[in-house]
Specification:
With 264 residues, the protein is an alpha/beta fold. The chain contains 8 helices and 7 strands. Helix 1 packs across helix 6.
Amino acid sequence: MTRIDGHLLDQRQSEAGQRCAALPDLFDATTFRHLERLGVGPGWRCWEVGAGGISVLSWLAKRVGPTGRVLATDVDTAWVESAARPPVEVLRHDVGADEAPGEGFDLVHARFVLADVAERERALRSMVQALRPGGRLLVEETDSSLQPLSCPDEHGSAQRLANRLRAGRRALLAEDGTDVSYGRKLPRLLRDAGLTRVEADAHFPLGAAACAALETAGVNRVRERLVASGFATDTDINLHLDHLASGSLDLAPAPMVSAWGRNP
């Protein structure tokens, strides 16, 4: 897996487009519910960290209105350039290496970013420091060890194959430095960072059509490494992809843990 500026996942791979298309269907409703609960409204200054798509940016732009500001940053901004119109600004930025692109934000949000940043502790500290007093931080990460199965109902050979491939992918992520248990740590990490009113919950999609698209992208992205590492053969992977295309598997991605808190 190629690093980009300290990041472990290469967003420029072709499978990244499939992943970015599937994630909103699975997780946007939960993200929007949390953002609404945090009170995002007209005039807010928001920093969207690692903005891999435009769905959250579009929602934030509507909420903050013309008097607000939404700053979208990522190591590769190709996916979000189309959203670069007021109140949205787009900036190439590495949250794990660069200084925060401003301060006094009412909201800082990151989804599926920090677990794959090599300097994740520095990144979280930078995000907290960018908040105004009373500002809100919302961090959302998967935890693939919390629920490690592609098919929680492992009742046949197709499900066992899917779960074996998920175990191989999780091992490769850990080998590359991704914290596959990061989601469950978020409440503690936010409290340790000095935030107050820290709360968290987890969202666990099961059986949605987008689960197959996300699984297909994930397997294709590391196909060669799964084979080279002995986790699967090409025949195994082709069979699994056929199962995915048939719609016969009740799939689940790793659960998303959402944690939020307030800067004193």
